[in-house]
Design a protein that fits this description.
- The protein is α/β, with parallel strands linked by helices.
- The protein contains 12 helices and 11 strands.
- The chain starts with 13 loop residues before the first strand and ends in a 5-residue tail after the last helix.
- It binds NADP nicotinamide-adenine-dinucleotide phosphate.
- The site of NADP nicotinamide-adenine-dinucleotide phosphate (NAP) has 26 residues, from helix 10.
Length: 302
Amino acid sequence: MIHTTTAPRTLGGDFLLGGDLPVRRIGFGTMQLTGPGHWDHPADMDNAKNVLRRAVEVGVNHLDTADAYGPHVTENLIRKALHPYPPDLVIATKGGLTRQGPNRWTPLGRPEYLRQCVEMSLRRLAVERIDLYYLHRIDPAVPLTDQLGALADLQHAGKIRHLGLSKVTADQIRQAADIVTVAAVQNRFHLVAADDPALAFCENAGIAYVPYAPLAAGGLLWARGSLDYFARAHGTTPAQLALGWLLTASAVTLPIPGTSSISHLNDNVATDLDNVPSAALAAAVRAFRSSPRAASTVTGRP
Ligand SMILES: NC(=O)c1ccc[n+]([C@@H]2O[C@H](COP(=O)([O-])OP(=O)(O)OC[C@H]3O[C@@H](n4cnc5c(N)ncnc54)[C@H](OP(=O)(O)O)[C@@H]3O)[C@@H](O)[C@H]2O)c1
């Protein structure tokens, strides 16, 4: 069953995460609120807190973070900016990726480490239960039953409400679903990286599919060309077209665009499907994908 409502369309409308947590479909990813290489603090901590406050002020109620962002930086920022939390705020965090420096990430899925990750995230976020906890990466060196078993124990102890998986194949979701109830899957997905069999699996199972890097980590917006042309033609912006496409790609998508800028945040949350007729959206996406710039958008800044 797919847990969506058709109205309102503000922030993409609502979705029932895990069957019981209502979230607006456009959330906010906090990874950009860190230093270079997602290491250490952002240059401007006050700005980072203001971005978080603004997100909540405009109605975003699904924040995505991880202990590895910083590490620990964004979980602490969320607490400092927003605690005590609004009652409808859903905070998703992750564990199981260790950090060795800027842009360096290594999976570690030993049960005792995952237990520590959860305990420390609870402390940093100042919550008694984590709404949605992702295994950030499956560690190939540890049996999946041990990794998910440790998280399931914490769920049964009341420390985790829902469990999710990150960067997984449809087969891995299937295996995980034999061990735990999977409420959400977070995979890289955007309009030029849109071939992921895990999406159909999630759709059939009513699992939330959270496209990470929904703007190709900014790559979709650096290229100039048909995305801008269609955005201008419909009085919208390239970011809103890219996010609008994700909202229409499936009823279970919950994009979490990330930004360190209040004006970009305002742009992203103003995505309004009513402003972009689906035929125009499809035409824009087709034209953009076939443009010579499309491939370069996913490889980095031009
Ligand atoms: N599960 C995982 O393994 C995983 C991996 C990667 C990311 N994530 C999650 O997914 C979230 C989103 O991914 P992401 O932050 O890497 O990439 P993204 O959302 O695709 O794009 C972020 C980039 O786009 C720029 N941007 C955002 N909105 C813009 C706008 N309206 N106009 C112009 N530029 C704009 C941002 O720069 P400015 O800061 O200058 O706005 C930033 O460089 C992360 O924050 C994180 O929570 C998860």
